[in-house]
Every structure is written in C-alpha cells, then in structure tokens.
C-alpha cells in the first residue's frame, strides 16, 4: 500500500516533539522543546494557537477539564490555555539542576509517565546516565521507576495493557516491560527491537490498532513499523527531512499518522537541502490506523492551594523518600474509559 507524505504545519520548530491528537477539539497538540512553545493546530482551519513557556517543555497532554498537564524544565505543571498560566504540581530531579523533562504520555489508567535527561550540549550529545523515568499518579504522588537513563524518549502501552514499551534513545533499541495496570508498576525489562544500520536514533513512538509500534528515527529521516512480538521491522516510510522526532495517530478515523521533526543544529547548507526541517508531516495510507482509545487518556488535575506532593521511590532507589513543597497543590484523578 502506498503512503502519501504531506507537510501540514510548515513552521520551523527547533525540536518539534510530543504530538497528541485531541479528539474533542479535532486538533493536534505538540511542543517545540527548545523553542519553549506548546502548539495546538486545527487541520480543518489550518489555524495554530501557541503558549510560550519559560523553560524547555518536553510534553503537553490534555486534562479532562479541558486544560493541560505539561513537563517544563524539571516540573510537572498544570497549564490553563486561556490565561496562559502554569501552576507547579511537582518538582523532580532536585539534585540534578541540569536535567529536564523529555517525552511523556498518559497510560490507559490515567497515570502520566515521563522521563528526564541532562541538557544537551548539542543534539544527542549530553552527560550520560543522568535521567530517570517517573510517573505522576492519582494521589499526586510521583513514583521514580528507575534511573541511569541517557535520553528518555518514546513510550506507549500494548492494546491489552499488559506491556509497557520504552525507548532510552542512546541504547539504540526499543524495550518492553511487564505492566500492572492496577498499580502502574513495571517489571521484566527486555529488548524487543535493536535499531539497524542507517535507521538512526530511536526517538518518540506510538502504537497502532494492530499492536505494532511506529518509531520515529532521529537522523534517520524515516519512521519504521516494528512488530514487538517478533522483533522485526515490518515497514519503513521515508520523509524529506532527517531529524524525525515523534509520531501519533489522529484524524476523525485515526487514519492519519502525524510526524514531528527538528532543525536544531543544522547548518545553513543543510537547511537549504531540507527546507521543511522542523515541520509537522501527515502520513496517509500504509498503516492500519491508530487505536481508538488513545484520545481518551485524560488527566483531571484540580489545583488547591497548600497541598504537598509526595515522591515515592521505585525499585533500586535507596535514598529516603521525601516531601516536596509545591508552589501550589493539586488533586489528580483519571477518567473512566
């Protein structure tokens, strides 16, 4: 089946990332990490609305209330789009001021998983083993699942919710964990796909209606479709730019694959050869479409002054747990789906 590749958002993001389809608004939400921007683009009108952040923003996800939860710098924050205001929910990696959030995604039960990394000296060049994987739970606790991460990136869950897929980019692989949907715990870490020569660095990813992973290939100029059960690549779709960063399914029937890209670090000569670098692309055809429950993952964060967030420690973290004072408190609940 042939694939049509169309450049749909022609803005030049420094690091376009974290695409999320908003069912209610029929819009695409995505961020420009180093550009410190959160974008909402409506395909029907071709209109784009933007919120500016103070620090690098790794992700933004919708809340049930209609607002958003973001990862900005080293904080989980609640964004009110109308007022453009951001309230702190929890601070992480307080002993590593050079860290920041990167990719994040909501699990099928409404928890938010997100990872950190050190600030880059230049694209994909950074202090290693500084990042961790966290989750933000209903009771406003933050769980640290593991550390020693180089560059925390793509994540998603299998259709039966029993497997969590994860990418630490500089391992050049996709990993899987057993997943307990009730507790949010992960176990039995193993590799399910090793990147091949020429495929680049694995970045963001999503899962389709057939339980196959679609992986964005940074410096590889492509997205690849992987069967995680067999550990094989099923399909490669090449794009007109090299720095492919992430992808998600969207559109009314979830039949479109939206793909983000970056231009940070490119020379003028490279930009002349790839004038669409940093744009958002739409891939039509060549895939079975996205899962229909993905848009239903929503967080409902109510802000109430004076609360304190607790950080729970995951396996392998021997430091004592501690309370984190927040600029404002919150309560977290997840929607039913």
Automatic annotation (TrEMBL):
Active site: 203 (proton donor/acceptor)
Entry's Gene Ontology molecular function annotations: calcium ion binding; enzyme regulator activity; gluconolactonase activity
Protein's organism: Esox lucius (Northern pike)
Binding site for a divalent metal cation: 17, 153, 203
Keyword Phosphoprotein: no
Pfam families documented for this protein: SGL
Domain SMP-30/Gluconolactonase/LRE-like region: 15-262
Cofactor: Mg(2+); Zn(2+); Mn(2+); Ca(2+)
GO biological process, one term: L-ascorbic acid biosynthetic process
Cofactor remark from the record: Binds 1 divalent metal cation per subunit.
Protein name: Regucalcin
EC main group: hydrolase
GO cellular component, as recorded: cytoplasm
Catalytic activity: D-glucono-1,5-lactone + H2O = D-gluconate + H(+)
Family: Belongs to the SMP-30/CGR1 family.
Binding-site positions, substrate: 100, 102, 120
Cellular compartment(s): Cytoplasm
Keywords, sorted A to Z: Calcium, Cytoplasm, Hydrolase, Metal-binding, Zinc
EC number: 3.1.1.17
């Amino acid at each position: 089946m042939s694939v049509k590749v169309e450049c749909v958002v022609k803005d030049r993001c420094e690091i376009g990332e974290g695409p999320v389809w908003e069912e209610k608004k029929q819009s695409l939400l995505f961020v420009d990490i180093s550009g410190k921007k959160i974008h909402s683009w409506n395909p029907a009108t071709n209109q784009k609305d933007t919120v500016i952040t103070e620090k690098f923003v790794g992700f933004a996800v919708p809340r049930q209330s209609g607002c958003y939860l973001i990862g900005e710098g080293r904080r989980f924050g609640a964004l009110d789009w109308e007022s453009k205001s951001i309230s702190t929910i929890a601070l992480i990696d307080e002993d590593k001021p050079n860290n920041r959030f990167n990719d994040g995604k909501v699990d099928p039960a409404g928890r938010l998983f997100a990872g950190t990394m050190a600030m880059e000296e230049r694209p994909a060049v950074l202090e290693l083993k500084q990042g961790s994987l966290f989750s933000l739970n209903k009771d406003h606790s933050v769980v640290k699942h593991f550390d020693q991460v180089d560059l925390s990136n793509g994540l998603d869950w299998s259709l039966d919710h029993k497997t969590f897929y994860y990418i630490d980019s500089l391992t050049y692989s996709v990993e899987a964990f057993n997943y307990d949907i009730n507790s949010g715990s992960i176990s039995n870490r193993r590799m399910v796909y090793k990147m091949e020569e020429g495929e680049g660095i694995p970045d963001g990813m999503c899962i389709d209606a057939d339980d196959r992973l679609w992986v964005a290939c940074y410096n590889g100029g492509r997205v690849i479709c992987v069967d995680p059960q067999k550990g094989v690549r099923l399909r490669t779709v090449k794009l007109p730019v090299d720095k492919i960063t992430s992808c998600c399914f969207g559109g009314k029937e979830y039949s479109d694959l939206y793909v983000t890209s970056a231009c940070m670090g490119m020379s003028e000569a490279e930009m002349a050869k790839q004038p669409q670098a940093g744009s958002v692309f739409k891939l039509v055809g060549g895939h079975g479409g996205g899962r229909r429950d993905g848009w239903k993952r929503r967080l409902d964060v109510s802000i109430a002054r004076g609360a304190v967030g607790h950080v729970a420690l995951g396996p392998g973290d021997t430091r004592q747990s501690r309370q984190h004072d927040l600029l404002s408190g919150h309560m977290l609940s997840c929607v039913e789906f």
